[in-house]
Design goal:
heterodimer, A: 184 residues, mainly alpha, Potassium Channel Kv1.1, Chain A, three-stranded mixed beta sheet, 53% helix, B: 369 residues, mainly beta, four-stranded antiparallel beta sheet, 6 helices, ubl conjugation pathway (chain A), SKP1-like protein (chain A), SKP1 (chain A), Skp1_comp_POZ (chain A)
Chain lengths: 184, 369
């Protein structure tokens, strides 16, 4: 994340002179309002909001904007979990510790349901939070790796558009890949 | 969220990132998920992306009960086995297949009978358990041939190249194919000169421009019997391993500048216990060899002369770096009534060179015809 020094876009609401290099406390003092697709407004600290590349570029394009930032593709439920992740990430930015970060990431995904993960992916993708996407992709890969086709279809909510003949042919082509699959 | 709202919410480029994190067995199974997943998996971009991130492993061929077994090993201190491939899904008419080489996760095997005739040429991707029988060139005369194998970036396809010795030509004798890297194949060849002395060199074939070349060996090696020599790749250039007659040492030469004869340098002399054959230069600087007799795998550090024997890896005659890939997934392996592969998009070109002649023959215009 670039510091506020590079990007002194403090708005008139802030009483501090905008040229001053913002400190951690100054950053955390500022809040940004984000509105989800289901019309919920989240007030998040600027440092967290700047983790969302999409939001960051919104402020870069309109530095003095004081409006609530609309997030038309982001529903509230996964968004709150995304915020939870980013708050944790920020701690490691100030104090990098790869082992602790990995531990924290794996704990984050461990307690999430399959649905949570699948819902967070498009949000992380839309907000361009690369770290979170990497964590989610790996978590999903771990969960589906040894699973049956039927399980994974319901995992992602995929409609099977193959005819039964087409599917049978594909299963036959790689019959060995269907052996030793976990029970659903 | 309702089921219908959940549908297709995961964007395609993210689906690709999830798939790439999966083992190939899962990927093949998930072709069945839906048409869009199937087309994503079989897309060339995905196959290339998977290949690009695949971790290099060591492919070993070992022998057990007269069967050839192929296994993958981690390139770590103990060469831990990561995967045992299924037995070959095809049979050799001779005792065993010759491994011509491998690239992008595809092994090229030839079946050569006791008369030196090539009975079959096979491309095999053991990871996806798929193989293709290549049609043999129409011109298969009574001369010995040696094959080479590589991937040509410019045509985005595999190429199998044949070097033929013509009885009428100059007295040049191609030996086993050695190594391919950066789109250039390399064989060891010796030439008998008028005084009956032998002169050895490396024959190269550049897949990007279909040109053969000759690369000189260091002066000291040009006259030795190439039976005792192996050419390998080290840091994008050539290395020559030569077993000295005393059977107690192996000399390692390295061509610091590819193609420049003056840049050959002897890097090391390694003390070995009996005749030992080099197989591959490892990323950690060690050389993987097999010991004559037990054919036990030995990893030797040429700097410290320390070597480690792998008693659990006996009867090994081949090792090379290998990546697991989806290559050949889209190739059709239908065989028509004449026993030849039908024309397909990604056909494998065959090139031949008769030693003594400079031009390249492309029999039948490629393998697909």
């Amino acid at each position: 994340m670039s510091s506020s020094a590079e990007n002194p876009t403090l708005t008139t609401e802030i009483t501090k002179p905008s040229t001053e290099i913002a400190t951690e406390t100054a950053q955390s003092a500022k809040k940004i309002n984000l509105k989800t697709s289901d019309d919920q407004i989240f007030e998040v600290e600027e440092s967290v909001a700047m983790e969302f590349a999409t939001v960051k570029s919104f402020f870069e394009d309109a530095p003095s904007s004081t409006d609530t930032v609309p997030l038309p593709n982001v529903p509230a439920k996964p968004f709150s979990q995304v915020i939870e992740f980013c708050k944790e990430q920020i701690k490691f930015k100030a104090n990098p510790d790869e082992t602790e970060k990995k531990k924290s990431n794996s704990e984050f995904v461990k307690e999430k349901t399959n649905e949570d993960l699948v819902e967070m992916i498009p949000v992380a993708n839309y907000l361009e939070i690369k770290d979170l996407l990497d964590v989610l992709n790996q978590a999903v890969a771990d969960r589906i790796q040894n699973r049956s086709v039927e399980y994974v279809r319901s995992f992602f909510g995929i409609d099977n558009d193959f005819t039964s003949e087409e599917e049978a042919l594909l299963r036959e082509e790689h019959a060995w890949a269907f052996e030793d699959v976990d029970e659903d | 969220m309702t089921e219908s709202a959940k549908k297709n919410r995961v964007p395609e480029d993210v689906m690709m990132d999830i798939l790439i994190a999966l083992p190939i067995k899962s990927i093949l199974r998930f072709r069945c998920l839906s048409k869009s997943w199937n087309s994503l998996i079989t897309d060339k971009d995905f196959i290339n992306a998977y290949l690009a991130q695949a971790k290099p492993l060591l492919l070993l061929r070992r022998w057990q009960d007269r069967q050839e077994l192929y296994s993958l090993h981690l390139d770590n201190e103990s060469l831990d086995r990561s995967l045992q491939f299924q037995n070959l899904p095809f049979r050799s008419e001779a005792d065993c297949f010759d491994i011509i080489g491998s690239c992008n996760g595809v092994v090229c095997l030839s079946d050569i009978d006791h008369h030196g005739r090539t009975k079959s040429l096979i491309l095999w991707n053991p990871t996806i358990r798929k193989h293709l029988n290549l049609p043999l060139p129409k011109l298969c005369g009574p001369h010995s041939a040696t094959w080479g194998f590589g991937f040509d970036l410019s045509s985005d396809d595999y190429r199998v190249v044949r070097v033929v010795r013509q009885v009428s030509s100059k007295r040049e004798f191609p030996m086993e194919f050695q190594v391919a890297f950066n789109g250039i194949l390399h064989w060891l060849v010796y030439r008998e000169e008028n005084d009956n002395r032998r002169h050895s060199f490396v024959l190269s074939f550049d897949l990007s421009n279909d040109e053969f070349g000759e690369i000189m060996l260091p002066q000291r090696l040009a006259r030795v019997d190439i039976f005792w020599m192996v050419i390998s790749e080290l840091d994008d250039s050539l290395a020559a391993l030569f077993y000295r007659r005393d059977a107690k040492s192996v000399d390692v030469w390295f061509m610091r500048e590819y193609g420049v004869r003056n840049s050959w340098d002897r890097l090391y002399r390694i003390q070995v216990d009996g005749f030992t054959r080099g197989m591959v230069f490892r990323k950690n600087g060690e050389i993987l060899m097999t010991k004559h007799g037990s054919d036990e795998v030995v990893s030797c550090n040429p700097r410290t002369q320390a070597s480690r024997n792998f008693g659990n890896l006996r009867r090994c005659d081949h090792a090379e770096y290998f990546v697991q890939s989806l290559s050949l997934l889209n190739e059709s392996n239908e065989i028509d009534s004449r026993g030849k592969k039908k024309q397909q998009k990604g056909n494998v070109k065959l090139n031949s060179r008769s030693l003594g002649e400079e031009q390249v023959m492309e029999p039948g215009g490629g393998a697909g015809s």
